[in-house]
Amino acid sequence: MSLLGLAFTITKSITPRHHTRCLSTNTPNKVIENVRGIMRKVPQPVVVVTTSKPEDRNHRRGITVASFTSVCLKPEPLVSFCVQTPSRASDLLHSSGSMVLNMLAHEQVQQSIAFSSPNADQFKDIPFFDDPITGLPVLMGTLGAMHCEVYKVVQLGDHEMWITKVLKVEEGVGGEHGVREEAKPLLYYDRCYRSVGDQVFMKAFADNNDLASTKWMHRAHLRMAWNYIRELGPDAAEPVIKETIRTHFSKNPVKSRDYHETITSFYIALVSAAVRSFKGDDASDFFALVEHFPQLLDSKTIETYYSPDQLYTDHAKHTFVKPDLKPLPTYL
């Protein structure tokens, strides 16, 4: 899954020979790191691309992209975005050929998170309507939407660049109260090469906003831990993760009673083991991680390490105790 990176079109030009030799001193890996570094400083609009099957409009899908840009206005308006391949979103876009590009407003963090997830029921609890002419899903509360059709698709590495022709622009309300003056875009930057939506996800988790009160379940805790582990390393991340969860729970008196030191420590160890084991191009994709290691989402996994008598005690709730069935994993 999901998720997505930035695509860059490099235009080759005739370069003096001595200049070419100068550029060749930069290794490909060095250039990649330099591009990552500078792109962290560039604010990006958060755009959700939605589409549906022509023969079954109830088969909808959306994907959060960070690579949206305007290509040209003449002779016809073209915009582009990128999609990771292979993916269900890519398959459906090819099947449909038409899509809606929804420009998220600043308070639509929930929508960004929902459509950066591979879950089947992405539109649950998300306000939207089906366009009466095209039947395509349009998100509500956005800055606006562009109704588009495919112009050209270019394969670039592990992504496709979709160049699309804009057929219609639909103004959104862009705010909680529908007042045009409050329309502000949802932006993120300084992303530390996280997967799409992780910067806004981490902010939303820390804020514990009301919109997402039902979203902060086991998967969200794993994703928060994964972000910190990748950024800080397992050892330095552990106290930060625990403090973040305690702070998060403290904002909800009912949840505050649920914090369990041993269970929290176990899943930090489990995510750390998964991060060590998961290499390759998908290593920066949380949704690919949990798809590769389904035991992360399985509530029964901990029972293969701990007996109930060891885990469900007042001592284990307040102090970390080691598993009694098998040692904590280092790799998965």
TrEMBL record:
User: What keywords is this UniProt entry annotated with?
Assistant: Oxidoreductase
Q: Which Gene3D superfamilies match?
A: Electron Transport, Fmn-binding Protein, Chain A (2.30.110.10)
Which Pfam families has this protein been placed in? Flavin_Reduct (PF01613)
Q: What parts of the sequence cross the membrane? A: none
Main EC class the enzyme belongs to? oxidoreductase
| Residue ranges occupied by any Flavin reductase like domain in the UniProt entry | 39-195
A single GO molecular-function term is:
riboflavin reductase (NADPH) activity
EC number, UniProt record: 1.3.3.3
Protein name, as recorded: Coproporphyrinogen-III oxidase
Report the source organism: Mucor velutinosus
